[in-house]
Write a structure and sequence with these properties.
The protein is α/β, with parallel strands linked by helices. Helix content is 28%, strand content 21%. It has helices spanning 16-26, 41-51, 73-78, 91-101, 139-152, 187-196, and strands at 61-65, 83-88, 107-111, 125-130, 153-164, 200-206, 215-221. It has a 7-stranded mixed sheet with strand order 3-2-1-4-5-7-6, sandwiched between helices. The relative contact order is 0.15.
Length: 227
């Protein structure tokens, strides 16, 4: 890929079925997902400070998309939600969280289809969080999920999503803008999507430490006067 501005074709991401098979059967999950982040505790603390703490109030009804082994789920629970819905494409991930967190009455589990939030009621979520998931979701599926977020968030509800921004990749550090199994997605795509869905941007954070140097954190609010 000589330059991101040349619109040259990039390899497609695995299909929903391939993702389900890999994360549900192929991946080892030996450290419950902690293997993907730096060991420095400031890494997770920074993500929480930017993308969770300003938006998840005590008693909030929370949704996490793609909890994996629960590495961020434990942090969302620590902040005192009244309920926390976990949606994952792989039943294995939901089973790991059931084993990790036990019979916590605040938790409920939904097996996802890779495009929607079927089973999550309209206007039932105050805050949604997802990390290391949407970076692997191509544009059509990502935009289908975001339309679903408009549906399930209450007016004034907020979502914080980690997403691929291969336009921000430092090609001097790595010539592959999609290193880390990144989707073909750019910061401008996200800006256009939020505008199209009339979502209020709150945060668009980029730093090389975040994850592979080609991803960002976006936070946005569903307006009180929704369409």
């Amino acid at each position: 890929v000589p330059a991101l501005g040349l619109r040259c074709p990039l390899p497609a991401m695995p299909s929903i079925e391939e993702n389900r098979d890999f994360w549900g059967r192929g991946y080892h999950w030996k450290d419950l997902g902690e293997e993907w982040g730096p060991k420095d505790p400031r890494w997770k603390a920074t993500i929480l400070e930017l993308a969770v703490d300003p938006y998840q109030a005590p008693g909030a009804r929370v949704l996490e998309i793609g909890p994996g082994g629960g590495r961020f789920t434990e942090e969302l629970l620590r902040r005192g939600p009244s309920s926390l819905v976990l949606v994952d494409l792989a039943e294995k991930c939901l089973d790991m969280c059931r084993q990790r967190f036990g019979p916590d009455p605040r938790l409920s589990y939904l097996l996802g289809d890779g495009r929607s939030l079927a089973g999550v009621a309209d206007a039932s979520i105050d805050f949604c969080f997802s990390f290391d998931v949407f970076v692997h979701i191509e544009k059509a599926e990502l935009e289908a999920y975001f339309a679903e977020l408009v549906r399930v968030l209450v007016p004034g509800g907020v979502a914080s999503i980690h997403y691929a921004t291969i336009d921000r990749a430092d090609l001097a550090q790595d010539p592959d803008p999609r290193v880390g199994w990144r989707a073909d997605y750019r910061s401008g795509d996200m800006q256009a999507l939020l505008a199209r869905l009339a979502l209020e941007p709150l945060l668009d954070f980029y730093h090389r430490f975040l994850s592979c140097g080609n991803s960002s954190l976006v936070s946005f609010r569903k307006p009180h006067a929704s369409r």
